[in-house]
Every structure is written in C-alpha cells, then in structure tokens.
Amino acid sequence: MFFVAAKALFLLYHYPLSKTLSISEIAKVFLYGLRMDISFTSYICVFPFFLFLVKSVVPNIRINKIIRIYTQFLVILISFLVTADLELYSAWGFRMDTTPLQYFKTPKEMGATISTAPVFVLLLIFILIVVLFVFSYKRFFDPYIEKNQKRFKIADVFFSAFLLVFLFIPIRGGIQKIPMNVSDAYFSEKIFADHAAINLPWNIMFSILNRNDTQNPFEYFSSEKSEKLVDYLYNTGPKRIPSILSVNKPNIIFIILESFTAKWIGCLGGVPHVTPNLDSIAANGLLFTNIYASGDRSEKGQVAVLSGYPNQAITSIIKTPTKTRQLSSINQALEKIGYLSSYTYGGELEFANIKSYLINIKMDQLIDKYSFPVSERTTSWGVHDQYVFNRFYNDIQKEKQPFFATMFTLSSHEPYDVPMKPVFKGKDETTLFKNSVYYTDSVIGNFMAKLKKDSLWKNTLVVFVADHGHPLPGHDPNDRPSKFHIPLIFSGGALKLKGVINNIGSQTDIVTTLLDQLNLPANNFKWGKDLLDSSARQFAFYSFNNGFGFVTPKGTETIDNVSKKTIYKDSAYDTSDIKYGKAYMQFSYQDFLNR
C-alpha cells in the first residue's frame, strides 16, 4: 500500500512529465513496478516473520510492540527518502541511489544544494505520509497482531519457518534463473515512465549491494572490439595543428566556472546580455563552440579538465583515492618543465573528495575558504567570487613564472545568493540562477581588466571552461546534449591566434590541446584529442546516471545503460555511429576498473 501510494505521489509531484504519459502508460508504471514493490516489501518482512517464528517457539514473548516500533521506524525513514527523492529527481533526473551518500559528508554544502527546493511543501508531504501510514498501521494492523497473540500453536513452528524461507522467492523477484534487477521495471521508450516504476528504497539498496570495482556492467562488445573501436576514434595519423601561442612557456590560468551552461552564453547562441564580459573575451580570443562536459557534477568536471579523464556512468573515480593517485594531470606534466601549480576555491575542498584528488595529482598549493577571513565567508558555500578573484589575483602576482594556477568559482551554485542587486527581475529559480551567472561574469570582467594592465598579461594564457552544464534554463532532461553544452574560451596576451573553432570536443580534450602547443608529450592522456587538429575525428562523449551521450557532426544519440535503449536521437544522426559511444562507455569503464 505504501509503495503504490509513493508511486502515485511521484507522478503527481512531477505532473508536467506525467501528463506526457498515456493512461495505459501510467497503469503500466504501477503494474511493472509491482514486482519490485513486492520484493522490497519481502525484504522488510524478514524481521517480523522471524519474530513470528520465535513466537511459535516461545509463546510467552510479545512481538506486537517490537513490530510496531519497527514499522513506525521504517515508515519515517522511507517517507524521508521518498520525499527527498521528489526534489532530487527534479534536479538530477534520476531516482536516488548511492550518489547522494558522498555529499552527506559535507552537510552544509548538501544543504546549500537543496536550498532552492520548496522545503515547506516537502516537509508537509513528509508529515502527511508519516501520519497517514502510522495511523493506518495503528488502526488496522496493530490490533490484529495484538488480537492473535495467543493463537500460535506447535504447528505454527513449521508454518512460520516455511513463510520465512518462502520470502526469498519474492525477494529475488520470482523463480526465474536471474534475480530481478532495475531493468525489470523498465517498459517504455519514455525514460520518465521507467523511472516512475522503480521502487525507491529497492533501488537504493540495490545500488549499495551492487557497488563493485571488479566487473564491467557495460559489456556491449568483446573487450578486443571495444578497444579497437575506441582506437579508431583517436588514432587518425599525424596531427595538423596551428600554433596559437606567442611565447614558449606561458603562465597558464584555468578558470573553472560553476554551472556555466552554454545556454547563458550569448556568443554560443544562449540568452543574450547574461555574460557580456565572457562574450567580449571570446570575441577577442579563441572561442570553441562545440564543447561538452564529460559529466554532470563538479567533482567529475575537475577530473575531466585537469586529468583529461572521462566520467563513469554509475560512479566517479574521484570517490576512490587509490585510483585518482594513478591519474596523470596537466600540473604534473607542466611541473617537468619548471611550472609550479596552485588551486583556489572559495568553498570546502573536502566536498565530494576534491581535496584528496588534488593532493593525489600533486597540486603544489591549495587555497580554500579557510584561507579567507571569516568576514568574507558570506555565502552558504563559503566565499563569493569577488573576494576569491581578488585573492587569486594577488596570489599570482607573487608566483614565480611560469606558473599554472587554477581557480574554481562558486557563486553560480545553488542557492544563487549573490551580493548584487538583481539585474533581472524575478524570484523563480531560473532568474536567480541567471542573476548569479551575471554576477560571476561581472567579476570576471573586473579580473581580466586588471590582468590586462599587469606585466603578467603578455606572458599569460587564460582558459575559461565550465565544470558542467545545467538543466536550466529550459528544464532540460537529464540526458540532453543542451544540458552538457558548455563554454571553452582561450584568452590572454600569450594568445596569438584568435577566432572561432567549431570542432566537436569534450573537457577531456583540453589537456592534450595545451600540451601539444607546448610541444610536451601527451601520451599519458589517451582519452584526449587536440581540439585544433584538423585531422582529428570530431566527437564528444558524456555520461549521466547509468547512461551516456555520443555527439557527432550529424547530431547526438543518448543511451540508457539499464534498458540498452535509445532515449534521445537527433533526426540526422547516423545510428551506425552509436557503436563508438558504446565502445567508449565499455572501454573507459574497464580502464577505471583496472586502475
């Protein structure tokens, strides 16, 4: 009863998506999800069924109070998960699994992430669910167990034992050879319908129990064939690249922009007048128009940008320090020719294991919010961009040249509480986000204006790139290429080639592109191609929760790894190209496992 009600609640909460489903499809949400509902119900019945067995052996023990407490605890816990999932699905586009667990280590940041959620509405929903089902249990079920306390007989020992063992049939989803998995709830080409059918606590438990670093779940081809297909993407013969730098060893600055989707960038065809400074910088620099984020979270973007390493669809390598220790990085490649490195962020570097990654790749100096005075920690995330850029500018003044310095912005992250009078009117989340992007863009303009007047300018290359895209504006589905489309701009006095590059690429290509300009070997970055290489194949691979997208000059196709079905495909897309995306998914995940 609870899980059927939870499905109805999920459909109601996401009514704009639910209204795209037919009556038949809505009925199938409940029908196809029923096995999973029964399975998890059977899991949580193991304990009370065990008590029934104990009761049949020890008649004097009273089990109704224990079962009452157990039931009420589960109602409260699962109601919390169901309620939290309602809003997380809006933000992330997939049902809750183990992904949020890594953020619980930093509750302040987790709180900031969800601060734009309708907390009062969600709290009211949570209370109503708990009250309804606790009352139902007390009114209809608890009295039944109390009434039958004395009816146990010796024969009940065998019957109770049988029931306890029998539970394992519905737990595994039936008597078929292969136990039930998530794909058993999938029935539709519409991914929302499939997601709605999933039993939430079953999905969480399944993702916890099936976390492993030994088996590749993405076996589309033989290992030999997947490697051969990926090799085809990268091995295109001698590179043909122009020289874009006026100095041999320029200072290199990476500005990683929080959530800067291309949809806000005017020069990329986005909403005009939101990023006037970046638009101006692009007009006087080198603009890459077809770049895609490798993943959909900040920590994933760091690995893709700094290590040229692709994302994993069901985990992230940054979660495993023993694996990130083996990653190459641009700062290590530059260190060999005398560069010192630094990384500046106004928040907590511990968030999502970013600090352990930066230490493992041997970043020389780390600056986080605790490096700033308390008076400047004015946002729930830490320190707003204007203060961080000021500190960053002062720090690079003191650096021995050549240096490699990275700064990661944060003010355009939820809750978008920027210290600026709103330029765009409105209180909705999209407008708040829009104002926060405008704020960070204005700070960037001030930073670049100061840098241009500095003696550093003529010897410096500045790279602007987003950590990931964003569903807003437009509420993009989780898999859409428009959600992953991001800006990449080269600027600085050390840049001699200016213009527009339309080649398709990814964050994983940035390191290779820069190392080629410095005549440094890029052999350790096998997942990157040179964005300036006219002989390179044009493609981008990105991953989302248990799925991936593959972008080509003819369009994009996205695949759900659970159902092995296409979620989205451009009309002109050549379907024969998706085999390269599947091979990339398989071979890159195997590389992750092998580390």
Tell me which CATH architecture of the largest domain applies here: 3-Layer(aba) Sandwich
Q: State the separation between the terminal residues, measured CA to CA.
A: 45 Å
- Secondary structure category: alpha/beta
Tally of individual domains:
2
The main sheet comes to: 8 strands, mixed
| Low-pLDDT segments | none
CATH superfamily of the largest domain: Alkaline Phosphatase, subunit A
| Rg from alpha-carbon coordinates | 27 Å
Mean pLDDT metric = 92
By oligomeric state, this entry counts as single chain
- Spatial order of the strands forming the largest sheet: 4-3-5-1-6-7-2-8
How many helix segments?
21
Strand content: 5-15%
Overall geometry comes to elongated
The helical percent reads 40-55%
Describe this structure in words.
This protein is of the alpha/beta class. It has two domains: 2-209, no CATH class; 243-529, Alkaline Phosphatase, subunit A (3-Layer(aba) Sandwich). It has helices at residues 2-13, 15-18, 23-57, 64-92, 107-113, 119-147, 155-166, 168-171, 191-197, 200-209, 223-234, 276-283, 298-307, 321-324, 330-335, 354-360, 385-398, 429-452, 481-484, 510-517, 578-594, and strands spanning 251-257, 286-292, 340-345, 365-367, 403-408, 460-466, 485-491, 499-506, 540-544, 547-552, 555-560, 565-569. The strands form two sheets. An eight-stranded mixed beta sheet has the order 4-3-5-1-6-7-2-8, sandwiched between helices. It has a four-stranded antiparallel beta sheet with strand order 9-10-11-12, covered by helices on one side. A hairpin with a 4-residue loop joins strand 11 (555-560) and strand 12. The protein is elongated and about 90 Å long. The mean pLDDT is 92.
